[in-house]
Amino acid sequence: MPPPPPYILEDRTGSLTATDFDDLYDRIFFHIARVPERPTTMIYSMNIRGSRHRDSLPFNQQPIVVLDFSPDEKLGTISYMQKPYNISLPMHRYLRKTTLFGSSLFRKFVASDGREYKWGHRIFEGQEWSCTTMDNHLVAHFDLNPPNVRPYDPNVSGHYLTVYEHFFPLTLELLASLTIMRHIAHHNL
Q: pTM of the entire structure?
């Protein structure tokens, strides 16, 4: 039997603080939303694919990750709200620069499996963000839709987060850390 395809999470809007990440094979769904009037971004696990229909339903989910940034959008605290995580850490300790004087766009973190992973900006051709093991085995990548190519569906951005099979259990941590990395790049931190 062939291995399952990677999780290919379609980024619905391309927005850093208001989007959905839905697996193309309908296995996993996440919603990212900013708390109005606060520098807090929430990640929710959803039961169904993001759609206009879901947007019209009452929203009563509890977040599974809370990203509290400082009022000036600098790094704050990441909190995993469910077991087995149930942790809260300063983001600068959670996602550390790979070298003391290196770029902020290259950071590493320790995942729940006890292994260290690193995110890098544009280190592989065609990948906006790439996550690798410390020995450079590709774990996940976030790809942007080329500016001259229209997405196949006008309701999606054409951006994708791909998570490879052996790393499926880390999908939430990869999405949370990617969201912080994109925030760092967006705010030039």
A: 0.92
